[in-house]
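Dear support,

Our group has been running a series of protein-ligand predictions, and this particular one with NAP is the one our PI (initials K.S.) wants archived with full inputs and outputs. We had some confusion internally about which version of the output was final, so please treat the block below as the authoritative record. The input we submitted was:
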Amino acid sequence: MKFFILSRNDDLSNELMKSAKTYLEDFGLILDEENPAIVLSIGGDGTLLHAFHKYKHLTSSVAFVGLHTGHLGFYADWKPEEIEKLVISIAKKEFEVTEYPLLEVTINYRHGEDSSIYLALNESTVKSPDVTLVMDVELNGVHFERFRGDGLCMSTPSGSTAYNKALGGAIVHPSLEAIQLAEIASINNRVFRTVGSSLILPKHHSCLLKPVKGPDFMVTVDHLQLLHKDVQSIKYRVADEKIRFARFRTFPFWHRVHSSFIDSDLEI
Ligand code: NAP
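Confirmed final output from the archive:
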């Protein structure tokens, strides 16, 4: 089996990367950066986001596994002291694959430029570079509201514990094929009105954002941030592609939520 390892690039993560590489090669696995079957991410959830974006063109064939060198992560749930157990599992075991939904982001431009299409593992946000964001929000082609405020955040279920949570959005189990739209500081008074709650959209529903003010927007896709000029619309939907995680043991999502946000008693 072909593998690749990504490290957060701190001393501990690099040291663990070296030993994991040696162990896996001793077991006969082949290091292959181009076309790995399994990618081991060593660092944090942020490191796994980078790993996902490096291999997002291989979603149907690559499986990810994460080891955390800081606090427990949602994507990085193996501990440094479990490195030997993890590499033995990778080398010896047929692993199960758990799939999580992804977000598809399509940005259309006003002057016939080709659309940009992205996949997000956590979320995509839209903000205006210097003024209040004013966007018409359409759900399945029907006008829903005119949003005024700092921005909008559309997250995946596994991204619901990241930026979305800080915005007061719900935590969504990743077995649900859905996306969640959360407001970032909406302006609400007698003149301007938005729904004020997060909206959870099922698969096959879409959300279209149409600029009312200003054609240029800062759009993030996970850790990546780009200024898009002359934007006509931004479309969000549940992607056809999914991310695949290699599972060698069970660690239920709600246990991870409890361990990360309440206390670490349930950490395994
Ligand atoms: P980053 O340092 O890579 O990540 C920021 C924090 O978010 C880190 O503590 C990271 O955990 C954690 N995180 C990432 N994905 C998570 C998930 N699915 N569930 C729970 N926590 C998660 O920052 P970045 O490179 O700028 O952007 C990456 C992510 O940061 C974005 O996708 C966004 O979700 C998040 N972010 C959060 C806020 C906020 O909470 N107010 C604001 C902006 C961005 P690790 O330490 O394990 O890497």
